[in-house]
Specification:
Length: 91
């Protein structure tokens, strides 16, 4: 049975993990932007800025770095065939 979940792809260092990781990073950045721009002045704006700076943006940065590492290490697609990966040799 093939598994296509993001955590499983990350565990296997699959190239399929790059897209969910990038989407997660992007969504955190967008959430931080909307939280700050829609917060009313005063304490809610202060909380939104602190949450963005201390939580959302650092986690988004870590996710982006992870996606870049997966791209740069040459992560491979999971094999769909059982057995050896090389050509068969016989005499």
């Amino acid at each position: 049975m093939q598994r296509y979940s993001a955590p499983y792809s990350l565990h296997r260092r699959s190239k399929y993990a790059v897209l969910p990781t990038t989407a997660f990073s992007t969504s955190l950045c967008i959430d931080a932007l909307f939280a700050i721009t829609t917060a009313p002045p005063g304490m809610p704006l202060t909380v939104a800025i602190l949450e963005a700076v201390l939580v959302e943006l650092p986690v988004a940065t870590l996710a982006a770095v992870l996606a870049l590492k997966l791209l740069n290490t040459g992560a491979s697609a999971p094999s769909t065939r059982p057995g050896p990966s090389g050509p068969a040799t016989g005499s």
